[in-house]
User: Which sequence fits this backbone?
């Protein structure tokens, strides 16, 4: 009886399992930049039209303003 308990204890507490996800995704930004806001608590949730990561876009905004000024000059 003593040996049976020892053998059962080995099987119960000596088992290791590995959990792997079904699918993995890599999310990348189309542009490089400094991350200004990141909501880590929203990761791995099914969301629509929700901000998860905000990248600093000041350089792109200034380029857009310059391009719009050039378009206005050409017109």
Assistant:
């Amino acid at each position: 009886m003593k040996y049976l308990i020892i053998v059962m204890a080995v099987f119960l507490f000596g088992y290791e399992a590995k959990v792997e996800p079904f699918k993995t995704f890599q999310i990348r930004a189309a542009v490089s930049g400094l991350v200004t806001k990141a909501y880590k608590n929203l990761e791995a949730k099914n969301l629509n039209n929700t901000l998860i990561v905000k990248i600093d876009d000041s350089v792109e905004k200034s380029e857009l303003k310059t391009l719009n000024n050039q378009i206005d000059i050409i017109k």
The mean pLDDT is 81. Strands lie at 35-38, 53-55.
